[in-house]
Amino acid sequence: MKKFLSEFKEFIMRGNVLDLAVGVIIGAAFQSIVTSLTSDIISPILGIFGGMNFDQLSFTINGATIGYGKFITAIINFLIMAFIIFLIVKLVNKVMSIGKKPKEEPKPTTKKCPYCLSEIDINAVKCPHCTSDIPEQADEK
Asked: Which of 52, 86, 120, 137 could be 124's S-S partner, Cβ–Cβ 3.0 to 4.6 Å?
């Protein structure tokens, strides 16, 4: 049992698990902000044009009420949340790349012989495979 608790403690203290836990907690708090924005501000403003709040849109079939307005509000919540997360990730990626130098592609060290298509050293003037003279304007691929 002691080994089991030790393994569990090691698992829970991993960086990824803690990062995930913090992300979930912040995401839940952020979701309430977006839900409030949609329910308390956006839906009533859209309701001005439609004559009623989206949350109140519904219809009844055989005594069952289907609140499709709440579904529309949930879709708006999702789109706002996804857009804001996209902007945050884009901002974080931009901040993380500020101090980094862009990777330069390594210069090619080989080229192909135009006669036998073997790969040869970039500085070669004669192909070691077919013994042809390599012209200087040969394409480097």
From this structure: 120
Q: How far is it, in rounded angstroms, from Cα 54 to Cα 137?
A: 70
132 and 72 belong to one structural domain: no
Q: Tens digit of pLDDT for each residue in 35-92?
A: 888 778 877 777 677 666 677 778 889 988 888 888 887 888 788 878 887 888 898 8
* 134, 127 Cβ separation under 8 angstroms: yes
The amino acid occupying position 70 is K
Model confidence pLDDT, tens digit, residues 104-140: 888 888 888 888 888 888 888 888 888 888 887 644 4
Let me know how long the chain is.
141
* φ/ψ (deg, to 5) at 126: -140, 135
Total tally of structural domains belonging to the chain: 2
* Same domain (yes/no): 21, 50: yes
pTM above 0.90, yes or no: no
Between strands 59-61 and 119-121, the pairing is unpaired
Domain span at 70: 2-96
Q: Count other Cβ atoms within 10 Å, centred on residue 134.
A: 19
Q: Which amino acid is located at 55 in the chain?
A: D
